[in-house]
Design brief:
Elements lengths: L13 H20 L5 H8 L3 H28 L2 H21 L3 H14 L5 H10 L5 H18 L2 H33 L16 H16 L2 H32 L4 H30 L2 H21 L6 H14 L3 H9 L7 H30 L7 H22 L10
Helix pairs in contact: 1-6, 1-7, 1-8, 3-5, 3-15, 4-5, 4-6, 4-8, 6-15, 7-11, 7-14, 10-11, 10-14, 10-15, 10-16, 11-12, 11-13, 12-13, 12-14, 12-16, 14-15, 15-16
Length: 421
């Protein structure tokens, strides 16, 4: 029988911590996707072209990724509560700057601030979960955080469209800045880094020796073969999925399959429902059935590969339900992300957990920009006359499937960990 969630005598409870922490990740997911549905307003009001819009979208991911480097140090040395609070104050400034922006450069700067501000809203909650809950439940709870986070992506779709019709896109960003401020206040008032009696701060308070310990911790991590294998899997998984979700799914469905915009949106929604359902499922599968991290991750990578092969192999006049099924499976099998972080967490000491997970997250958030540009380059190079045609998408999806299959084979050489270790 697994240990119960840990308690605290100051009024903070594990599920209060979980709820507040998960809310920050929902907000992060919202900001990642928020630009997509307001592009008509940005284009009309500020005269932006496709290149400018791409720069605005990419700025968030690159800033988010680069922020993982100092974040890795802060989570273990400063603690998740203070780290998240400081970063989210930057994010609030970014949201307000975006709402007030009158030029492309200001929009890019605002997105950079938002990327930095949201950089701790996954690794911070993971660090808190590791302190407040039993290790046996970490993968399942992590999967639940990811599933809840997907509601942020849903908020950035039709609900954001309705909101902008009511208060405008600037008003929408001001509103979410206010929500962010409320969450920051709750974090400060209701959350501590660990239950009372289980301090998370390092025992050595000397700055020089602390820096030496941090450096030794990072060097030790970089020497781990499994760190690089897990990082590669995390980057390829999210990079390919995010590139398809945020850009390439739309033109594929409309240009190749002849779907209407509404049908396209519904198909993407089905894929995201798959992610929401799949997160807790993979956590449960890893914790309770397989008692293995590696098996669950390899299974997810294999499922993503088969989903892409299925989509690529569908005839042009395939039943729309079959197309939706392919994207549903893609969403389900791509939802094992939390187990990747669990896998690295279980291979390092507790005082390295934040650094290790943030290190994985660096590659996770860097990969979408690389995959977006790489897939676009491949389609333009191989099919210059029709880079968004059926042949270009089929070939690109096959290449992505081959990459995922190769990563799955490489992952077999990683060291497994178990839920009950």
């Amino acid at each position: 029988m697994s240990p119960a969630p840990r308690s605290n005598t100051d009024g903070s409870g594990p599920w209060t911590v979980f709820t507040i922490a998960a809310s920050f990740f929902i907000l992060s997911q919202y900001y990642r996707a928020a630009v997509a549905v307001i592009t008509p307003q940005l284009t009309a009001e500020l005269g932006l072209d496709s290149h400018g819009l791409a720069m605005i979208s990419a700025a968030f991911f690159y800033a988010f990724a680069l922020a993982q480097i100092p974040l890795a140090l802060c989570l273990d040395r400063v603690g998740p509560r203070r780290s998240m609070l400081a970063l989210n104050l930057v994010g609030i400034i970014g949201a307000l700057a975006f709402a007030a922006a009158q030029s492309l450069n200001t929009l890019i700067l605002a997105r950079v601030l938002l990327g930095i501000g949201m950089a701790g809203n996954l690794m911070g909650p993971f660090k808190l979960l590791a302190a407040w809950f039993s290790a046996r439940r970490f993968a399942m709870l992590g999967g639940l955080v990811f599933s809840l986070g997907m509601t942020g992506s849903l908020l950035a779709a039709s609900p954001l469209v309705i909101l902008t019709q009511t208060v405008g896109w600037r008003g929408a960003f001001i509103l979410f800045a206010g929500i962010n401020l409320i969450l920051a206040a709750l974090l400060w008032l209701k959350v501590s880094d660990a239950p009372q009696g289980q301090p998370m701060k390092p025992r050595d308070n000397d700055m020089d020796s602390g820096f030496t310990a941090i450096s030794a911790s990072i060097i030790s991590l970089l020497r781990k073969k499994d760190y690089w294998i897990i990082s590669l899997a995390a980057g390829c998984r999210y990079g390919i999925f995010a590139a398809i979700q945020t850009l390439y799914c739309g033109p594929y469905l409309m240009n190749v399959r002849g779907f209407s915009p509404l049908a396209t949106g519904n198909t993407i929604l089905v894929m995201m429902i798959g992610v929401i359902v799949g997160g807790p499922f993979f956590g449960w599968l890893s914790d309770e059935i397989l008692h293995s991290r590696k098996k669950a991750i390899v299974g997810g990578l294999a499922g993503m590969t088969l989903s892409l092969l299925f989509i690529a192999g569908l005839p042009l006049k395939a039943n729309p339900l079959a197309v939706a099924l392919g994207f549903l499976c893609m969403g389900i099998f791509s939802s094992f992300t939390a187990i990747l972080y669990t896998h690295i967490k279980e291979q390092v000491a507790m005082d390295q957990a934040g650094s290790a997970m943030a290190g994985i997250n660096f590659f996770t958030m860097l990969a979408p920009g690389i995959c977006l540009q790489g897939m676009g380059w491949l389609m333009a190079w191989r099919h210059p006359a029709s880079p968004l045609g059926a042949a270009a998408f089929r070939e690109t999806y096959l290449v992505c499937g081959a990459v995922l299959a190769g990563v799955a084979l490489l992952y077999l050489f990683s060291r497994d960990t178990r839920a009950d270790q």
